[in-house]
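Homework help board

Subject: predicted structure for assignment chain

Our instructor gave us this sequence and asked us to write out the predicted structure in token form, then describe one feature. I got the tokens but I'm not sure how to describe them. Can anyone check?
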Amino acid sequence: ARVGLVVKHLHQPDVLANGVRLEAFDRQVRVGAAYVPVPAALTVNAAVDADLTATPTAFGNARHLAAGGELWIRRRLGVRGGISVNTIDELRQSLSAGASVAFQTGLFIDGHITRGDDEATQGWGLDLRVTF
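My token output:
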């Protein structure tokens, strides 16, 4: 099991231009927990995390609660899925799916897509990841 805490903008910094305050960043806090067993031929991971603070976005305020799972086959092919719900203002949910393929030890191609009612979380991505 793993537990984590992330705090962004700890000192709530300001963005200044010629001494004029343009933007202030509010502190953001997120907590999470995951079950990550010892890798085997078939490994299942699960995680849950939650924002403890609200964050203003272009689509309204956001405070997310999320959960997901991941299945790895021989540490070469991973498939994952999850759900996220915005718990502040209007209730909005999103579903996500993704996959990873290791075509060489430590070298992965990852892809993901997120769709749903929460416009702030919608998107897709494709990347090359190196691990060691």
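Reply (TA_rk): Your tokens look well-formed. For the description, you could write something like this. The CA atoms of residues 34 and 47 lie 4 Å apart. That's the kind of observation they're looking for.
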